[in-house]
Sequence to fold (304 residues):
Amino acid sequence: MSELRFNELRGEEVVYAIHRQERTFLPSREHCPLDATRPGGPQTEIPFPSFEIAVFDNRFPAFESPLGAAEVVVYTDQHDGSFGSLEPQRAEALMWVWRHRYMELGAREDIDYVMIFENRGVEVGVTLHHPHGQIYGYPFLPPIPALEQEADLRLGGCAPCTLMKRELEDARRIVHQNESVVAYVPYAARWAFEVHVVMSEHRPSLLACQAAELRDLAQALQAIARGYDALFDRPFPYVMVVHQAPTTAAAADGHLHVEFYPPLRTADKLKYLAGSEQGAGTFISDTLPEESAGMLREAIARAA
Ligand SMILES: [Zn+2]
Ligand SMILES: [Zn+2]
Ligand SMILES: [Zn+2]
Fold:
């Protein structure tokens, strides 16, 4: 069981999940726990000879019932590949799986915030290469979604709606667009190639989306992921996070968007969080969002 401690100086919760120390770390190809269990082969986490998308409780959870949840979402039974290289129909089906998990976990009384995410690449601490993501159900509202709610107050309305409109007017940082979704490197991005993929209409969560919007969202997310790989012609590490309305008892608003935080600033240089970022909370970047957006826009077009 994890322990929660409130860090008074920061005004935030810290989670101690010490059992996670024993978790599986980069197992060999033959011992992948996210493969299907093939007849005569080793028992994996998924007791079926094949599957499309699998969801199960994380065996090394940061959160567990009755104080939150931690789930693993395996995108495919194919070990090699990535979110970006999934068949489009599979990526679209994944949006429906996300939607269902958001609904089910969000309905639980002990869960105030459902966060769907993917860590990709050893640079961001990935311990299993098989294409997969995770879902955390937090028993409290974490600081970043809380800050986004404060932005709504500061801007006198939905912050993602306002910021997306500004990006569309400016247009220099837009990297991809389809009928339902706008993707851009934000005006004040923290990471060189940070991208926000935002629903064009105000949709608090996946539950409020129509089928065509879910398909368009999947298309845009894959376009970004493939563009990243094309950018420096190498698998591009990132953290991908789905932000939606909190699921607290009191009805809270939100605006569905997906944020990508890639740690690379050039083909072989990582951005480290150092003195200013860690000690002052102020990001210092050596590239302008307009410039990286131009590079990324070309890479996305190239990879399409
Ligand atoms: Zn595998
Ligand atoms: Zn909005
Ligand atoms: Zn956000």
